[in-house]
Amino acid sequence: MTSRIAFQGEPGAYSHQACHDARPEMEALPCRTFEDVIEAVRSGEADLAMLPVENSTYGRVADIHQLLPDSGLHIVGEAFVRVHINLLAVPGAPLSGIRRAMSHTVLLGQCRDFLHKHDIHRVTGADTAGSARQVAEIGDPELAALAGDLAAEIYGLEVLARHIEDHDKNTTRFLLMSREPDRTRRGDLGMMTTFVFRVRNIPAALYKAMGGFATNGVNMTKLESYMVDGSFTATQFYADIEGHPDDPHVARALEELDYFTSHLDILGVYPADRKRS
Q1: Strands 48-55 and 100-103
Q2: I need a labelling partner for 272 at 20 to 30 A (CA). Which of 79, 117, 178, 210 fits?
Q3: pLDDT 10s per residue in the chain (277 long)?
Q4: Catalytic residue positions?
Q5: pTM of the shown model
Q6: Are 200 and 235 in contact (CB under 8 A)?
């Protein structure tokens, strides 16, 4: 039986591209929402979830941090996708004839220079792959879509211009999540550990909690805070560190963190992706 990996969006979306690049042997399963992606894995309809967590230009993906701790899933890998944006149109349409370009508002904002140079009006679509599908269905040679190579292939569109984004390092990080945790050491670039925690209600609790990582030489690559249940007094922190919980210096840091927290939950232990650097 073919294993499946679930993603949010339509076929040809950048999340689909992440599935294609990271797990080419798996069948990609499109889902309407992030919650649907998580449920597909929980129910057994899919074996893995591919969820975007942050973008190098626009920061973290809204709401995803609230979903992960309660998802019941475990992080088993990460993937980085370079977001190359192309101008796609129906076959035979010339670049000089394009008057409008449709895509998600974020992508439209990333191609301002190109669109201004070619006097192309921006049209907001629901998402990137959905815009490509609409362009193919409408068949108007003056209407183009902003999307990736995979969307062009799926919907039979021609690439009129490649890599037209204003910033040349725009990258999205994804997490691969499974029903079962995997804490085995794997990969050849070291391990990553992701966890969430809440500090105890004592003075300088966060400062003291972070001290264990500094004194034990553990590199923390990410630390973000967000409200819990809409409360201004309940703050949860999301963190990524380099290393495995069984590493002595990591174990000491986590033990010290546990002393100053009211809640600590390891979401996953996984190999660092080659593109992380």
Answers
A1: unpaired
A2: 210
A3: 679 999 999 999 999 999 999 999 999 999 999 999 999 999 999 999 999 999 887 778 877 888 898 999 999 999 999 989 999 999 999 999 999 999 988 889 889 999 999 999 999 998 899 999 999 999 999 999 999 999 999 999 999 999 999 887 889 999 999 999 999 999 999 999 999 999 887 788 888 889 999 999 999 999 998 877 666 666 789 999 999 999 999 999 999 999 889 889 999 999 999 988 7
A4: 172, 174
A5: 0.88
A6: no
